[in-house]
Amino acid sequence: MNHRYLVSPSEYDDIGAVLREFGRGFEYDSCEWENLCDWTFLRNYEVVYLNCAQVFEQADYRGRLAPALRELVDL
User: Fold this and answer.
1) Alpha carbon of 56 to those of 31, 52, 62: distances in Å?
2) How far lies 69's CA from each of 7, 20, 23, 29, 75, in Å?
3) What does each of the 75 residues of the chain score in pLDDT, given as a tens digit?
4) Which residue, 18, 60, 2, is CA-closest to 10?
5) pTM for the full predicted model
6) Where are the domains of the chain?
7) What is the edge-to-edge ordering of all strands in the sheet holding 5-7?
8) Is 8 exposed, middle or buried (CB count within 10 Å of its CB: 0-12, 13-18, 19+)?
9) Which of 25, 35, 51, 52 would be 12's cystine partner, CB 3.0–4.6 Å?
């Protein structure tokens, strides 16, 4: 089964490196932080990995990210 994985930019950690270690079957797409605020973009993926990052400290960003993730989960 091919999963559609999406990984946010790495900063404090790097889940993409972990997925690469797993090898075949764990290929993923990377995206920019802004893409994560768009649920129509996110709905193309089954699994979204969020690396820990300083961007989450910005209230404006959290306010835009949370609704997009909620829409994705509610699909």
Assistant:
1) 16, 8, 6
2) 14, 24, 27, 17, 10
3) 456 999 999 989 999 999 999 999 999 999 999 999 999 999 999 999 999 888 877 778 878 888 998 988 887
4) 18
5) 0.83
6) 5-74
7) 28-30, 5-7, 47-49
8) buried
9) 52
State how far the Cα of 37 lies from the Cα of 65, in Å rounded to an integer.
Answer: 5
How many angstroms separate the CA atoms of 19 and 48, rounded?
12
- Identify which of 12, 10, 57, 17 has the alpha carbon closest to the alpha carbon of residue 31: 10
- Per DSSP, the chain holds a count of helices (H) and strands (E) of 3, 3
